[in-house]
DNA sequence: AGTGGCATGTTTAACGTTAAACAAGCGTGG
DNA sequence: CCACGCTTGTTTAACGTTAAACATGCCACT
């Protein structure tokens, strides 16, 4: 039976002072004489008092010194993704400077009954590429705390955004300029997607904002080249090497004439490349494959294929989001753009198959 | 001017019921008639009430549904380390299953005045390879919350431990068996270390527990081989490729006859190898280098050197720690061991230089 | 008819803290 | 000598919630 913990009140009564003075000894040293303060701290030490109860303080002050981060996907997935990890690193670097705690909030998919309330004790949220429709995210938004959304469109909220559309236009334009006409797109999940294959001229309005923007960028490129998007396939798959591989396999089966695969992440691209090579298709000889993120580990191996991709600064994205949340005060939601860079690597080349069937 | 937020109380008075009933509508649906519950929820929705205030609930119930994780190092550093990331992934996988939030707590190094109180609102702690002496960690321990320590020795606390000592003995034994007599050790920081070079027969009792155990394992191997540890150098350096490289450079300058470098992490080993090669020393031809962790990315590149290392299951380590904290109830602190495996790769080989000077 | 039990709701009293307003004492300057 | 301000501390009330005990009505069972 653990002894009851000491509180400001118990210490105060023990010492014959008021709880306020004990509180001040911790929070407002200037409001208390040095002698009293030292007496309080000394006594507190003897009863293993480790400072004011954080929950009570938070209730009283309305602040708790922590920010919450929400991902679309499972948390344990985020920790496998170079982009998400780097993004978190950016956030955490600011948290360290500010002494703020960082709360990772898993989406409630397993316990639907818990979806009705979001129990995180935080001063604000960073929402990474949220699906508007997910209940947990809806709750986060509805709570009305300061919120920064990342790669998302929300006029009333502060946001940090990469120019996905323009970048993807560059990628698709690059492939079209190389003569590719039989392209397909491999995307990570657009919403609660189940891996269907659809056409590029479908309506993507309700989708994940990142997917929406990148799809739009692809269309821009096709439009600029005067090529119809009808019949261009878009395959949705989990964002992993495995997912990329399976998607490539399905697309190549459905449309063997493909000469280029536009992947919405490097992981998907790596998987797609592996699949192509397993089928005896050389990359970029037979099929060009592009990625997105540009976060391959620094120690580049000599023999490895350098991806044609878009390098985005996920660290800076995280930093900016956290800086806005923890430091910005002022009028109107901030909108910050993060520079990205189109990088031509060795995974794309001139189309070799006869253009179109 | 944001309108004041609705509370259980305000909703109750609005609806002519008691706050308890509103609370029950959220927490104990069985204690409230279906009709009333629906009336409450419906009204709550119209006033943008997103469930009971988490801080108040936490104060009242004494629980908050979150666990805190503390690292030795900067948080933003942990996000660059494959071991730490995988460890976090293990923790987060359990948090997801349990619907618990995960609070990453930066060590307070920048704001010394904040060191006196730890403001995290959590139900328990996971301490990853803690330095006993760091103030933040001392506070975490002193708060008396349920705590699981990882790779640390604390009889009164639950723990999850890799058998560092035995594994390191295997590594050093392997090198000694290959004929190496001029070994040096490269370790990540032992405490508040500043990068000195010391002898292996120094006293490491007060150091980081992991370092302490691994050093002991090295000594075991030397003892078993009947070789003196006097004069065997131990170099401390930040745990990064850069750190490994610098340490290797310093050690080779101080003792050019070295034929083997025992590194306490794969990152250090990678850096050391790069440095050796930059100096024209072939690995493992001229110098053998060993690592620790075995977490190299799965997509192994053809030309790359496979490290001789110890593969430890960081994911499982994280999972077990979180499971103990969130699920274990019972008598006495649990002690869980995590299996590791000594892996002979291509970075170690027979010593070629004449044994000893 | 009386008793027990269940369903539904209320009353009461904290949980531990801190903001704001107030009081007492003491030195200082005009 | 008095008004003023500073230092040090106290009083009061509230932050928003929920556990525990209590009240009430209704039905069922004996």
Mind explaining what this structure looks like?
Two copies of one chain form a homodimer. The first copy, chain A, has 357 residues and is an alpha/beta fold. Helix content of chain A is 39%, strand content 15%. Chain A is built from twelve helices and 13 strands. Chain A has helices spanning 8-15, 19-27, 34-46, 54-61, 75-78, 82-98, 135-142, 164-177, 209-225, 241-254, 266-278, 314-327; strands spanning 66-70, 101-105, 125-128, 147-150, 158-162, 183-187, 197-199, 233-236, 260-263, 288-290, 309-312, 335-338, 340-343. In chain A, the strands form three sheets. A six-stranded parallel sheet of chain A has the order 2-1-3-4-5-12, sandwiched between helices. In chain A, strands 7-8-6-9-10 form a five-stranded mixed sheet, sandwiched between helices. In chain A, strands 11-13 form a two-stranded antiparallel sheet. In chain A, helix 7 links the parallel strand 3 and strand 4. Chain A is elongated. Chains A and B meet through helix 4, helix 5, helix 6 and strand 2 of A and helix 4, helix 5, helix 6 and strand 2 of B. Chain A binds a DNA duplex (30 and 30 nucleotides) through helix 2 and helix 4.
């Amino acid at each position: 039976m653990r002894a009851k913990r000491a509180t400001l009140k118990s210490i105060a009564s023990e010492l014959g002072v008021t709880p306020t003075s004990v509180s001040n000894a911790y929070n407002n040293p200037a409001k208390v004489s040095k002698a009293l303060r030292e007496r309080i701290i000394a006594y507190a030490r003897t009863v293993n008092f480790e400072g004011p109860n954080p929950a009570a303080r938070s209730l009283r002050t309305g602040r708790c010194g922590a920010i919450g981060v929400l991902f679309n996907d499972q948390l344990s997935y985020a920790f496998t993704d170079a982009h998400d990890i780097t993004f978190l690193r950016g956030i955490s670097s600011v948290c360290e400077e500010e002494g703020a705690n960082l709360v990772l909030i898993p989406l409630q998919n397993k316990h639907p009954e818990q979806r009705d309330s979001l129990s995180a004790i935080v001063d604000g949220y960073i929402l990474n590429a949220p699906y508007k429709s997910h209940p947990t995210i809806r709750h986060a938004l509805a709570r009305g705390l300061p919120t920064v959304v990342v790669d998302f469109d929300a006029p009333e909220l502060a946001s940090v955004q990469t120019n996905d559309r323009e970048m993807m236009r560059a990628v698709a334009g690059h492939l079209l300029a190389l003569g590719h006409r039989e392209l397909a797109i491999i995307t990570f999940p657009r919403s609660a997607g189940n891996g269907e294959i659809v056409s590029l001229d479908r309506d993507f309005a309700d989708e994940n904002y990142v997917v929406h923007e990148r799809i739009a960028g692809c269309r821009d490129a096709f439009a600029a080249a005067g090529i119809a998007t009808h019949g261009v396939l878009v395959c949705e798959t989990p964002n992993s090497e495995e997912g990329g591989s399976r998607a490539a396999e399905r697309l190549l089966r459905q449309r063997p004439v493909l000469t280029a695969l536009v992947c919405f992440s490097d992981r998907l691209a790596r998987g797609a490349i592996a699949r192509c090579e397993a089928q005896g298709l050389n990359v970029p000889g037979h099929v060009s494959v592009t990625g997105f993120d540009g976060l391959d580990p620094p120690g580049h191996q000599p023999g490895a294929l350098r991806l044609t991709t878009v390098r985005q600064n996920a660290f800076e994205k995280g930093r900016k989001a956290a800086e806005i949340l923890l430091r910005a005060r002022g009028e109107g939601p901030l909108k910050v753009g993060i520079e990205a860079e189109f990088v031509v690597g060795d995974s794309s080349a001139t189309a070799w198959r006869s253009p179109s069937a």
